[in-house]
From TrEMBL:
Keywords: Magnesium, Metal-binding, Transferase
Source taxon at top rank: Bacteria
Keyword rRNA-binding carried by entry: no
Swiss-Prot/TrEMBL cofactor(s): Mg(2+)
Magnesium recorded as keyword: yes
Record's protein name: Geranylgeranyl pyrophosphate synthase
Entries under Pfam families matching the protein: polyprenyl_synt
Amino acid sequence: MQSAIDGLLDREGAALAEIAPELGELHAVARSFLAGGKRFRALFCYWGWQSVAGRAPADELLDAEAPDPAAVIDVAAALEVFHAAALVHDDIMDNSDLRRGRPSAHRQFETQHRQAGWGGSAERYGQAAGLLLGDLLMGWSDQLFDAGVRATADASAAWAARAEFERMRTEVTVGQYLDMLEEDSWRLRDETELLSRAQRVVVYKSAKYSVEAPLAIGAALAGAALPQLAALRAFGLPLGIAFQLRDDLLGVFGDPELTGKPAGDDLREGKRTVLVTLARRRLPGSVRRLFDELLGDPDLDAAQIAMLQTAVRESGAVHDVERIIEREVGTALAALADAPLTRSARDQLAELASVVTARSS
């Protein structure tokens, strides 16, 4: 898959160089952003494909021609390019300084502006350049996805995969919007609605996008039958919820050396996560008022971060979220147990379930 990404970057880099040599910096940031990461979405896409293409579960399909693996490699790579685009935009919206232990894309452009001594606002330039880079990566992702579906002999499978991809893009975009909405509007919401609203963000911003959609895209590309897609969705959605809840815990308590982001970053950003919502429910009135006053302050110091972390931990919310993660993983594995999918894929998906929900970064 990395070779597909590298090939894309090489082609597009040559095209940018023909336009203007100054675009080399834009291309360099794009390449650095696509050099790392855990590749979970690509893995789920591949094993969604393999769960259908590896060995047909129905006897009447055993002699069917196997789909071309080259197609899923390009499609899986396209998901990683799309993810990089989403991260570039996300870091701008969250005003994040770091991504994977390195300066976020807009901060890299901001530094370039300052070091060059250009006129105007370095911060504004960095944000604008980051937005354009994200847009460029979105376009490149679509090109790579099209290369994959063109390599698919089954036109109906190609169309189905494209439909799943388009649905994913819509869902994650509106999920991001809902996340921003909750950060700024929660004070005007009914307290009894806050948990369900936080859960809705989990589903659309992350759970579907991170696990369910990549599985469905890969399976659709292999020509999955409806029962196979249904089984993968029944596995993917609860696992995606558990995946994001683990991410929320890491956003508050994660080790910066492992996460690549500052300690308590979600607290500075004021994320209205399930973890935070559950904690607020249990905090005494005076503590809750102080908690609400500090949450979302970008200038929180280490002592204030530690105080908020202690409040969350002592509220019992961490224990609650761990129990929800355990429950959602159990639901996912139960859906996988007798699913009409290849045995090797079921084994790999079960292993991935453990990896993505027990991670420390």
